[in-house]
Amino acid sequence: MASAGLIGTWLAAGLTLCIFSFLYRDNPFYKFAEHLYVGVSAGYWACLEYHNVFRPNLWDPLVRGDLILLIPFALGLLLFSRFTNKLFWLSRWAMALIIGIFAGIAIIGYGTGDLILQIHANLLPLWTGNWLESMNNFLLTIGVITGLIYFFFSKEHKGAVGSGARIGIWFLMISFGASFGYTVMSRMSLLIGRVYFLLGEWLHLIQ
Amino acid sequence: MKDRILKILESLEKLDRRIIFIFIAGAVALPLIFPMNIDFSVTPPVQSFYDSIQSLPEGAKVLLSCDYDPGSMPELWPMNLAAMRQLCQKNLKIISIQLWATGSPLAEAAFNQVAVGEFNKEYGVDFVNLGFKEGREVVMVSLGNNIPSTFPTDYHGNKVEDLPIMEGVKNYDDLAMIINISGGLPGTKEWILQVVTRFHIKLASGCTAVSAPEFYPYLQSGQLSGLLGGMKGAAEYEKLVGKIGLGRRGMDSQSISHLVIFVFILIGNIAYFSTRKKKKRE
Question: Cβ separation of A194 and B74 shorter than 8 Å?
C-alpha cells in the first residue's frame, strides 16, 4: 500500500515536471503528459457517467419496472441520431426539451435572484450618518449610473452623456483591474499548490 | 550615463519570459521552504462566513455542496477541510452532495481526513456523502421538493432513507444552511439564483479567487452570508478555525510572488515610457 502511494507520488511529480517543461518551450515530454491527461480524463468521465448517471438514474429503475423512464431513454437515444445525415433532425426533439427546461429554470432564477434583488440592493441612501458608509453608497450609486450610461447606445456619447460614459469607463476599468488581480492570485495559488506538492510530498523539503 | 541607463532599460524590454519564470519559481518555492509567517488580518466576508456557521444551534443539519475538481484544489481543498473542521467542532450534522462528478472522491477524502480522522465522527449519523448527481440547476430545485427522492442512495450505495442523519430531512426547510465550495459552473451563482431566493435558505460560499469578484454584489445584497475568495480567503478562515493548512502556508509565497509581479510590471512600464521618446526620435 505504501509503495503504491510512493509510485503515485513519483508519477504525479514526473507528470507535473513534464507539464512545467512547457515553460521552457514545447517539447515531447509536455506533449506526452498532455495527451495522457486528455485520454485518462475521457476514460474517467465515460466510466463515471455510466456508473453514476446512466445506471442509477435510468437503467436500474427501468429494469425494476419503472416503465415511464422509457420516454427519457428514447429521448436520450435520439441524441445519437446526430451521427447520421438522414436522421440527425430527430436529435432536435431531445435538444429542444433540454434547452426548454434549462431556459425555463434559468429565467426564473435570473429574474428573481439577479434582476430584482440586485436592483433593490443598489437603491441605497446617500447619507447614512456614517461618513465611510455614505462614501461607499455614493461611489456605488455613481458607478451603477455611469456604467449604465456607458452601455446606453441610443444617444451619442457627447456632452453630459459623454462625460457620464467616460466616468463609467473608469469604473469599468477599475473593476477589470480588480478582477485581473484576483485572476493573478488564483493562478499563483495553483502554482503554489503544485510546488507545495513537489517540495513537500515528493522531495520532503517542507516540514 | 543616461545612454547606459536607456540601454539597460531597452534590454529589459526584451527580457526573456523564462527569466521572469525563474524569479516567480523562486518567489513561490523559497517561502515554502523557509516560512516567514507574514501576518494578515481577517476580512469581513470571511468573518461573516465563520459567524454564520458559528451562530447555528448544535445538532443542526447543514448541506455541504462540494462542487469542484482537482484542478482548483490548491484554493478550495483548504476551505473544504476548514469548513468541515468548524462544522465538526460545533457538532453540526453534515449532508454532502456534489454537482461536479470529480468532487465526490474529494469530499470523501475530506470526510476521512477531518470527520473520521480528527473528530471520530460516525458515518450516517454525524455526516453523510450523498455523492454526485447530474442535472445542475434541476438537481438544486429538485432538492427543494424532496431530498431523498433526488438522492435515493448515497455515495456508497446505502439507501438514504435508512440513514439516521436523514431522519426528518425532506427538503431545504429541514436544513439550517448551505455551504458551497465552488470551482465554477454549476456553483455559487446557481445556488444563489435557484435556491437562496426561491427557498429562503442561508448560503455561504468558498470559491476560487478568479470568480470571487462576481460574488461580491451578492454579499452586499445579503444573498450570501459569507464569502471565502481563493487561497487568501482560505488562509483567513484557517486562522479563525484554528488549524493551519495549505491556505496559511501558501500565503508567504502568494505575497512574495505578487511583489515580484508588481516589480516586473513597474520595471516594464518604466522601460516602456523611458525608451518611447528615443524610439519616436529615431
Answer: yes
Q: Do B250 and A182 touch (CB under 8 A)?
A: no
Hey, is the C-beta of B238 within 8 angstroms of any chain A C-beta? Answer: no
| Segments of chain B scoring below 70 in pLDDT | none
Q: Given pLDDT bands bounded at 50, 70 and 90, which one contains residue A1?
A: low
B138 touches chain A (CB under 8 A): yes
Three-state secondary structure call for residue B61 = strand
Name the minimum distance, in Å, from the CA of B32 to any CA of chain A.
Answer: 7
Identify the residue whose cell numbers are 470523501: B108
The reply to whether omega before B186 is within 30° of 0 (cis) is yes
- What average pLDDT score do residues A161-175 get? 96
Report d(CA A50, CA A174) in Å as an integer.
46
| Structural domain boundaries in chain B | 2-34+252-281, 44-244
In this prediction, residue B158 carries a pLDDT of 92
Average pLDDT, chain A: 93
Beta sheet of B202-207, edge-to-edge order = B127-132, B93-98, B61-67, B177-182, B202-207, B226-229
User: Cα B219–B223–B229 angle (5° rounding)?
Assistant: 35
Q: Look up the CATH number of domain B44-244.
A: 3.40.50.10160
CB contacts < 8 Å between A and B, how many? 132
Spatial neighbors of B40 by CB under 8 A, at least 6 apart, are B232, B235, B236, B239, B251
Would you call B36 an interface residue with chain A, using a CB distance cutoff of 8 Å?
A: no
**DSSP 8-state assignment for residue B205:** E
Residues near A137 by beta carbon (within 8 Å), at least 6 away in sequence: A124, A125, A126, A128
Q: How far apart are CA A130 and CA A137, in angstroms?
A: 11
DSSP state of B42: P
Lowest mean pLDDT among A49-58, A173-182, B72-81, B219-228: A49-58
C-alpha cell at A88: 440527425
Residue ranges per domain, chain A? 128-207
- pLDDT score recorded for residue B277: 76
CB proximity under 8 Å: B 153-192 to A: 153, 190, 192
Q: Is residue B132 less than 8 Å (CB to CB) from chain A?
A: yes
The minimum CA-CA distance between B35 and chain A, rounded to whole Å, is 9
Do the Cβ atoms of A191 and B24 come within 8 Å? Answer: yes
A28 vs A20: CA distance, rounded Å: 12
**Position A2 pLDDT exceeds 70:** no
Task: Give B-chain residues touching A132 at CB under 8 angstroms.
Answer: none
To the nearest whole angstrom, how far is the Cα of A53 from the nearest Cα of chain B?
7
